[in-house]
Design brief:
The chain has about 260 residues and is α/β, with parallel strands linked by helices. About 45% of the residues lie in helices and about 15% in strands. About 45% of the residues are buried.
Length: about 260
């Protein structure tokens, strides 16, 4: 099955609302017909969502907006959290879930990730579900087992129709913001294992349709190697998503691989 590439930019805790307008406008200005071959998503901080959505909606540039986190409850006494209905109201239709920084710094567990994935599917929003191993786990030869256990936990209780709202992003923790990257061969090995795990959970057809992204310091200089891999369908982009030239170059590279 041919899967449409996805390039998603995770801006992390960067960009004021004013700065987000400049960055999203810069990206939108580069939009071309060839980008229709790629799904493009910008995931700014929550405070920037409305500003970014407004820019992209005005330009009619077919770029989607996503959040970096959500709560699984629709409302309640959860100080500092943002609900899925709130995200929908400001134009977001994607959400990153279970990023390694959320897991490490804020104690997000597999169970919490699963609740978010299920709530997003119920609301009809797309989840970018992050999984990945530490350097210690990789050096112990346990990378595939560890990552596939995270996938099983994240998708637990979902049927094939609900799983269709999920995209898996493989982000080796040791390659995020360190300047190190996994080799395409290492990334493809894990991506193939992820797809096999999804097949065990919700069937071959759903697994064949689900996109698997690489999320460890992808940039224009190394993107070709990853996007040539049969089980890698795009990237969850960190640092390079904050630079118009780099992010748009990645979209162009993905479009080339979609031909």
């Amino acid at each position: 099955m041919s899967r449409k590439p996805l390039i998603a930019g995770n801006w992390k805790m960067n960009m004021t609302p004013a700065e987000s307008v400049v960055l999203s406008q810069g990206i939108s200005n580069r939009y071309s017909r060839g980008w229709n071959k790629v799904d493009v998503v910008l995931c700014p901080p929550t405070i920037d969502l409305r500003s970014v959505y407004t820019v992209l909606d005005f330009d009619k540039s077919n770029i989607d907006v996503g959040a970096q986190n959500c709560h699984w409850e629709p409302s309640g006494a959860y100080t500092g959290e943002t609900s899925i209905p709130m995200l929908q109201d400001v134009g977001a239709n994607w959400c990153i879930v279970g990023h390694s920084e959320r897991r490490e710094y804020f104690g997000e567990t597999d169970s919490m990730v699963n609740k978010k994935v299920r709530a997003l599917a119920e609301a009809g929003l797309n989840a970018i579900v992050c999984v990945g191993e530490s350097l210690a786990v990789r050096d112990a030869g346990e990378a595939s087992r560890f990552v596939c256990d995270q996938v099983r936990a994240a998708l637990a209780g979902l049927d094939a129709a609900e799983a269709a709202f999920a995209t898996i992003a493989y982000e080796p923790i040791w390659a995020i913001g360190t300047g190190r990257t996994a080799t395409p061969e290492q990334a493809e090995e894990i991506a193939a294992a992820i797809r096999a795990t999804v097949a065990d959970l919700v069937g071959e057809q759903a697994a064949s349709a689900m996109r698997v992204l690489y999320g460890g310091s992808m940039k224009p200089a190394n993107a070709d190697g990853f996007l040539e891999c049969p089980d890698i369908d795009g990237g969850l982009i960190g640092g390079a998503s904050l630079k118009v030239e780099d992010f748009t170059a990645l979209v162009e590279i993905a479009a080339k691989h979609a031909e």
